Amino acid sequence: MSESDLVTFGETMLRLSPPDQERLEDAREFEVRAGGAESNVAIAAQRLGTPATWMSKVPETPLGRRTVGELRQHGIDTEVVWSHRGRQGTYYLERAGEPRGTNVIYDRENTAVSTAKARELDLDTIKDARVFFTTGITPALSSTLRDTTASLLKAAREGGTTTAFDFNYRRKLWSPEEAEETMTHLFPGIDVLVIAARDARTVLGFEGDPRQLAHKLGSQYEFETVVVTRGSEGAIGWHDSVVHEQPAYDTDTVSRIGTGDAFTGAFIARRLEGDDVPTALEYAAATAALKRTIPGDVAQVTEEEVEAVVREGGEALSR
Amino acid sequence: MSESDLVTFGETMLRLSPPDQERLEDAREFEVRAGGAESNVAIAAQRLGTPATWMSKVPETPLGRRTVGELRQHGIDTEVVWSHRGRQGTYYLERAGEPRGTNVIYDRENTAVSTAKARELDLDTIKDARVFFTTGITPALSSTLRDTTASLLKAAREGGTTTAFDFNYRRKLWSPEEAEETMTHLFPGIDVLVIAARDARTVLGFEGDPRQLAHKLGSQYEFETVVVTRGSEGAIGWHDSVVHEQPAYDTDTVSRIGTGDAFTGAFIARRLEGDDVPTALEYAAATAALKRTIPGDVAQVTEEEVEAVVREGGEALSR
Amino acid sequence: MSESDLVTFGETMLRLSPPDQERLEDAREFEVRAGGAESNVAIAAQRLGTPATWMSKVPETPLGRRTVGELRQHGIDTEVVWSHRGRQGTYYLERAGEPRGTNVIYDRENTAVSTAKARELDLDTIKDARVFFTTGITPALSSTLRDTTASLLKAAREGGTTTAFDFNYRRKLWSPEEAEETMTHLFPGIDVLVIAARDARTVLGFEGDPRQLAHKLGSQYEFETVVVTRGSEGAIGWHDSVVHEQPAYDTDTVSRIGTGDAFTGAFIARRLEGDDVPTALEYAAATAALKRTIPGDVAQVTEEEVEAVVREGGEALSR
Amino acid sequence: MSESDLVTFGETMLRLSPPDQERLEDAREFEVRAGGAESNVAIAAQRLGTPATWMSKVPETPLGRRTVGELRQHGIDTEVVWSHRGRQGTYYLERAGEPRGTNVIYDRENTAVSTAKARELDLDTIKDARVFFTTGITPALSSTLRDTTASLLKAAREGGTTTAFDFNYRRKLWSPEEAEETMTHLFPGIDVLVIAARDARTVLGFEGDPRQLAHKLGSQYEFETVVVTRGSEGAIGWHDSVVHEQPAYDTDTVSRIGTGDAFTGAFIARRLEGDDVPTALEYAAATAALKRTIPGDVAQVTEEEVEAVVREGGEALSR
Amino acid sequence: MSESDLVTFGETMLRLSPPDQERLEDAREFEVRAGGAESNVAIAAQRLGTPATWMSKVPETPLGRRTVGELRQHGIDTEVVWSHRGRQGTYYLERAGEPRGTNVIYDRENTAVSTAKARELDLDTIKDARVFFTTGITPALSSTLRDTTASLLKAAREGGTTTAFDFNYRRKLWSPEEAEETMTHLFPGIDVLVIAARDARTVLGFEGDPRQLAHKLGSQYEFETVVVTRGSEGAIGWHDSVVHEQPAYDTDTVSRIGTGDAFTGAFIARRLEGDDVPTALEYAAATAALKRTIPGDVAQVTEEEVEAVVREGGEALSR
Amino acid sequence: MSESDLVTFGETMLRLSPPDQERLEDAREFEVRAGGAESNVAIAAQRLGTPATWMSKVPETPLGRRTVGELRQHGIDTEVVWSHRGRQGTYYLERAGEPRGTNVIYDRENTAVSTAKARELDLDTIKDARVFFTTGITPALSSTLRDTTASLLKAAREGGTTTAFDFNYRRKLWSPEEAEETMTHLFPGIDVLVIAARDARTVLGFEGDPRQLAHKLGSQYEFETVVVTRGSEGAIGWHDSVVHEQPAYDTDTVSRIGTGDAFTGAFIARRLEGDDVPTALEYAAATAALKRTIPGDVAQVTEEEVEAVVREGGEALSR
């Protein structure tokens, strides 16, 4: 059993992508990297000083071990159920500028993680943590994981562990209707919700500007904190009925993937350090900005770098 | 004998280029790709649903076979005279931003294709096609090919095959005077002419804005259709004495090479599908836009992608 | 409908392998190539002058198109049912010397091809061919494919097409018992059987030296021709109750994968050219030897190269 | 404080090597890997099931973090004093066949680790372990590390931790005389000594065949266990005055570097599992054999693979 | 002894950088290139037609020979004292967009060149040259090099050789106070000073706009020529009490490193060709612009390219 | 004019080769290196301490400059006539084991060097050298070069420069009859002849064992020295009517290309140093052995490495 302040649970896939902006259809080689929302969040938090553990079920194969090894390289602990059944999820990433646009092809059916049951997992690790985190991707992967997600959130509550959740709607995994039904059932077990303004509108049917979305969500579901993200336009934090606005930094972007996870991981880490919501949002935005300069899914940043962006960030604010 | 709606004839070279923006003078490795206007056009048309065949004369060497193999990979058929004499043409491409500028060094003298005579080629394939296409590069390569080009256009006419021709003036191959003389002799055998506004002015001596150029060319030489291209400013289509204007799409460009060929191939394919000229121009511009997001010479696109650009293209139009 | 002398049917996977002898567990990049027994056989035959078509069901995705494109590059025709359901099969290859040994991890469940039914496929292409070929891998992939294999062999017989079959037992796909039952039911529809001596013993339960195996198999099941392969010790051909022995050539091996397919493709091609069995075996062994000097699954050889090996092969024979 | 059965202490360098067998003098790129005897041993033990921690002092720079991250990827824990002074050690590796021979250039002066004092390190981690391991490279790096090595061995003894030591004489670091004097002073604090027969002769001045060397060393210095290694000729284990001989396995070698460390790590792991010396030697030889098939310094093996070599190893024995 | 118009003296390091914008912390490979201000200047001058020699002290190792070989590749001569002591300096370059920013980590302590004494060097080569050049980096590397720099400038004066000096303050090597004291002592031996406006202000304490800085510097220290550089805003030349302003060209930049050296090398070359200061500044700006389109430290340009930029540069001028 | 002890004249090509043992027909990238017999010989001599200059005519293009730059990197001087006409010669190298065998495709017609006339070249450089060297490849390239070769040999004689010549028959360039006629006309101008035993037999029609060949050649044409090479079986030196036999060293070979040139360059260098023929042959064999461990055409060796092979070579001798 590991002892981390933050425990996350979810799937991490192998990401296969042709070099540069080559087409999958023409590829002779793939770059291989591990990527998944929950491990990305754990790593971002760890890099900002919060001991973090990623929990999952992984096939006992070279591919599974490879995935776990890469996560450990970034400094987090891993608490893994090794499985002799089920695939390692993969996804194919084809990068492109407009009007082609970056494209993702999932190959994540029948994975080991999709069979993970709460009773297989070390619930004490969750109960002993200060924050437990997962995303809306997890319950979208299988009906088993729908139950597991609910059980883990319940275990966290029992242990007095704060629960944080990134809504992360993926239309390639399920319909808005399915997502809404599943997620709103989970909401009562969640303390901190991160959600894209777009998802709040198209999946949950809320209306209004992002400030209104945050307020409506927070009030209706009695979250402790709500963060509404708006991509390059920044984020809104709602806490104690007060709304805080955080613009995004300008960046020379090399990879957008993982930006939201970097934001969320840093936000959680700084809240755990005792920062108030506006300060945590500022560090989250700075971490996200640095992430955008880094290839791959993962926010390989240092606290010093994040602090430098926050410190010198005045003129760097987009507006 | 293959049975394609579109048959193209011309040279396809091996393109050797250092990675990224390295200098040729410092290169330790070259990327290798096949590229040629006529095969690019065939591939673009094929990708949009028009069965296409590229016809040429190629050395019976690993380099020649490599060139043909790459073209087949993209889905077209090839109708090749294998030659035991003559080189495989190559060109060296050095990519650079301004003020250095991308540079091309041809090494295409004494090639197998430069000796291709009409009697070696399968004229029935041309006669049975719906469109025959070549470019102004072909007659520039040798006096033999000047005669061959004329003979192929003649055979196409005899078979009732529409003839399409991209003017494609290359100053590294011949002088404007030579080009003008040769090309204007070919014009009576051509139904559809594609020409850059710049070439219409500097080689053929026409004056006026692109709309005027299209109209003058069409009227004077009695083409069925004229397309005047203006790079990032779009294109003009002239047909039945009516002029149609097609703006270019905004793109995040990774490679400009082959953009014109993608445009032309898509235009031909859509005309063969029965589209009117304005619609065909729109698909042509969308295909060209996608091409600019793809490394290499070739428009590796799908019909769905092109349609998506056309459909969502309203706001993407440059102006 | 294509018109080839040889038609093969089966699955072609994408092969993902780390460079050199790196471990999958440590890989940062994968080389990507297409590989499958039936397309390998088609390519080997085509390279020796026999027009060949590979038939299959493939997902309508970039990965599926990539697989088909690579096969076309090697010169064969493809007759593909494009599917909107089912995965593209992949396999991971980890190369290693002894005592680690090269290892293969299949990820080929729920593929498009595993749902291919005979009524979806163009049976006329098979009926119009001179030889139809598949392997024991195909019926091992799904119960649907068990039926399909039987139906295709039946269609071939109806069309007067010779049927050739490589036993190719794969223990990672099914048990010896399942394989024996399925295969022996298929045997009456097969004219030419290729089988490893090891499989004849451990799956079919035959005993004796390879000459005896060939004779027993041929007599018991009334095959027209039986080829028993013995890896680096060569092969035995049985035809008209006569046994012919063909040693293997010594080689500087870079990749053993695809050697058997190269052998079989060349054997079929030369038999179609009218060679007697001993001569066809000699060309088959020479093609297999060349394949072992070539990275990847595919016998990228020329007739001239094969003939040179046969011609100069006296002293190159092992033993 | 981590809780591992095995704790090792020493320097891990970044290894920079041109691809394949290119010369350093001509290199345009270097492969980058972490490598060091003590971390190699920890990883080999961990891979065989023994929780292991590597302890060191590392510069707080991207290079230092990179080194530690790579070690964590292989599954071990790291207990690191981060330093704001001192370099990250590097070494340049040029691979070559005979008669050129592989060459190593150290660039490891003024490193962070060379300033590591015992009082900076977490001695409790050592005291709570079951085995503490370091090598003769450590005291060769600086006079500070000579003292530190002695202090760590003393702390281990105080904690009841078994001490294991690989003699590992490096002539590029110090003279035989310096090595002999330093090492023999350390011997009384060491339980398990691993030493190359060559070093026993040329540095310590012992004579005789390897069995005699093992016996003389064990008797004279009252070690609990002595292992005398002989490269491709295997190893000798001496324990309770009994000598055990272990031949090496035949291998297709891609990299000899790290073979001895793989051997030692596996030996320690199996002894901790309760194996007797001959059995532990057999697993050690099998792990070393697998290592030789793997590029890089590190024995990325699994227990299953090692067991398979031991199980099937009868005929694989060299002799 | 070589006979060059320009002789430069200083350190050239090996530059190790991960591909693209990858983090050092995650790197598996480094690109390797030679780079140093004084060799960069020599190469830029040579490329513009001025025979140039780089003089230094280099370790007699593969790394040292590699560095010298790469410089020779670019056409200059090298006059090297081969040393059996001292390291080859290296630096690690991590490229990044904002807000991360490109970062450099020096590993250049205890190098061979830091021990170079004037009496080891071939002073006649300097005395016979027309210009001797070094930078403020050289005296920052060691106290020995402080003396050596002074001695070489003195030798140049004795030989009637013009002395040129780029101030090049590096805060990672010394403090502004140290730099100021050392440099102002060297000033009386210098004819041509190149200095960044920023350094003139923060190290030397001058105030005013760049024109004023140039004038104050020139007057106070009696330089023959002063060039004040302002990065993307161009440069100011002061000569005979007249100030000339040279804007920078707009560029598609791939690497800023070495831009200043390209500028200085071209300026020296054109002055040696007899150009007046404004013309030399124009060529210098054009060379710097081309450099920014070239990866690596070195201005691999041709005279023709530089002339083309100057000739067509009217509209390319920034501002 | 450069001042070298050894001057060589000939063509150096760009060598384009797919990685590892990939087929040209499947290549996506080529490695690029410079290679030519005469520059290889100059480099080998230079590496053993003999100042050497390579003389040629080269196109004034990036490809030409690239070739010359790479040669300079290896330390030799270059004396080049830059040409605005004629191609840069290239050759394609496909590496393969048996029975495929390494294959070379020349693309060296119409090169700049093929037009080189003696009056364009700096004959004084030859006259002032101690040895002038070229090979039988040079006169095979064009009739112009036949004359030029004769003129250069004549100029060397006039200057008192020893002439050395490697017969180097290339059947892809001319017939044995043409070669014999041309070469035997050149023989009277040659002092030192290097020739493969195979060429002496099949082109010149000599018979006997290699010792006899050396003696017959030396006596009949009155050479000062004859070296007959026999590949992996070593070489025979004939001088003053005495025959010396030099076996070849055993090697782990990565590239055979350039082995003969390494041998010849070292032989010349050691003769210039004053070694007798047997000693020079020994160094030549050692240099050739080291070359075989190095990728590429060029003997990137050091004197120390060669001496180490000679010193420790007793047991390394083949036989």
TrEMBL record, chains A, B, C, D, E, F:
Residues 5-297 form the Carbohydrate kinase PfkB domain. One of its GO terms (molecular function) is kinase activity. Coiled coil: none annotated. The keyword Transferase applies. It comes from the Archaea. Keywords: Kinase, Transferase. Signal peptide: none annotated. Belongs to the carbohydrate kinase PfkB family. This is 2-keto-3-deoxygluconate kinase.
